[in-house]
Amino acid sequence: MKGKFNIRCKRICMILAALMCVFSSCAFHDKSADDMGGYGGIFPSDNLQEETVSVTEQETTDSEPTETAETPNAENETFNMGEIDSSFSCYGTWEVKDYQSAEFSTLTADEMESFRGIKITYQSDSILLDGEKVSDSNFIYETKDTTYNYDSLIEAYEANLGEWWNNISEVTCVTVNSNESFFGNQFFIVDSDTIWIYYEGVFFLAKNNSGTN
Questions:
Q1: Beta bridge partners of 208
Q2: CA-to-CA distance for 159 and 100, rounded, in angstroms?
Q3: Which whole-number Å values give the CA distances from 25 to 20, 32, 36, 177, in the listed order?
């Protein structure tokens, strides 16, 4: 009887040992599958595939050229630099009323005086001196970085115009870009009624004479 009991105990122990081996093997397999993406690392998981596609699409998007803002046309910039439109206040007829010499001038006192009363007319397509055309057909008016105040005009032209500066803070220099050289091809806009014409080291004050006889 005792021998049969021992045999049964041995069989039970063997069965329990076999079951423990099976459970251990299953647990190890599940842990390995989780660590390696669900299938022991042989096939990538769906999540891994989706991440790979997402990264690839992002790299493709980053590599595409981006649109840049349009830059201004260089020809338009050149055309607009300092040129005067048809409404600029210099257009009209101006009469010389007074003059002042800079520190150095090539004109004599009599020559300076001879310009008093001369009328010069600035138009969009021509410049007239006492009614006679003095400009060529391809000239243009230019004002490029040429604004002056009392001190900067003295420094640039060595001319102290004194009381001409009364109630004036600055003036704008206009240059006539032309193949011809003539009296009036450089002047300073003071206001709508006054300009200063610079010629041979002398400043001539001219008043707006448009509409008068």
A1: 94
A2: 8
A3: 9, 11, 17, 98
**What is the distance between the alpha carbons of residues 141 and 85, in angstroms, rounded to a whole number?**
9
For tokens 């021998």, the residue is 3
Please state, in angstroms and rounded to a whole number, the distance separating the CA atoms of residues 28 and 41.
15
Which candidate, 207, 205, 208, places its Cα nearest to that of 196?
205
As a whole number of Å, the CA-based R_g of the chain is: 47
Looking up tokens 């003071």 gives 190
Tell if the pTM clears 0.70, that is, is over it: no
Q: Which of 20-34, 35-49, 91-105, 146-160 has the lowest mean pLDDT?
A: 35-49
Find out whether 185 and 175 touch, Cβ atoms under 8 Å.
yes
DSSP state at residue 83: B
Structure tokens at 202: 């002398």
**Residue type at position 131:** G
Q: How far apart are CA 142 and CA 144, in angstroms?
A: 6
Do the Cβ atoms of 81 and 177 come closer than 8 Å? no
- Cα–Cα distance for residue pair 86/51, rounded to 1 Å: 65
